[in-house]
Amino acid sequence: MNNLNYRWLAAGSVVMMLSACSSVKVWPFGGDEVASVPGAPANSTAYVCEKNRKFYVRMLDNGATAWVILPEREFALAKSGTSFSNGVSTLTIQGQEATLVVTPENTYSGCSVPAPVKK
Questions:
Q1: Among 10, 46, 93, 95, which is most exposed with the fewest C-beta within 10 angstroms?
Q2: Residue 116 class from Cβ within 10 Å (0-12 exposed, 13-18 middle, 19+ buried)?
Q3: What is the dotted CATH code of the domain comprising 37-118?
Q4: Which residues, other chains included, contact 74 with Cβ-Cβ below 8 Å and sequence gap of 6+?
Q5: Structure pTM?
Q6: CA separation for the pair 10, 8 (Å, rounded)
Q7: pLDDT tens digit string along 8-67?
Q8: What are phi and psi of 46, to 5 degrees?
Q9: Cβ-count burial of 55 within 10 angstroms (0-12 exposed, 13-18 middle, 19+ buried)?
Q10: Widest CA span of the chain, in angstroms?
Q11: What is the pLDDT of residue 45?
Q12: What is the mean pLDDT of residues 88-106?
């Protein structure tokens, strides 16, 4: 590769690294804004469940798809009536409460959106 290709590769790497740091605050002057749950993926809603289990949901396609983010994997669920499903897993959201059945043996129950963290 010539030097120009290395420069493009380096520039692309820097952009990807910076995008991974989206939670870093560059503005040094605080404020009274309410922050989301620390460590939550961007544009997602955190749910804390029984046994201190948690997952995140990012709504896509104007609410037609729920992107479920678990510690070990992520997957999409399509809206099916009043819940979201892919034929195996089901997510039911009612207001601030939710139930996620990944498999019959792996169920997240008693889940709710925690109160926002004040910075």
A1: 95
A2: exposed
A3: 2.40.128
A4: 67, 68
A5: 0.66
A6: 5
A7: 555 555 444 444 444 444 333 343 333 345 678 889 999 999 999 999 999 999 999 999
A8: -90, 140
A9: buried
A10: 57
A11: 95
A12: 96
CA–CA dist 58, 30 (Å, integer): 27
Which amino acid does the sequence have at 56?
Y
Here the tokens at position 41 are 């993926």
At 53, is the secondary structure helix, strand, or coil? coil
Measured between alpha carbons, how far is residue 49 from residues 86, 97, 98 in Å? 21, 9, 9
Where are the chain's structural domains? 37-118
**Pairing, β 83-85 against β 106-112:** unpaired
Q: How far apart are CA 60 and CA 75, in angstroms?
A: 12
Burial 58-87 (b: 16+ CB within 10 A, else e): bbeeeeeebbbbbeeeeeebebeeebbbee
- How far does Cα 108 stand from its chain's mean position? 16
For residue 15, what are its two tokens? Answer: 């952009």
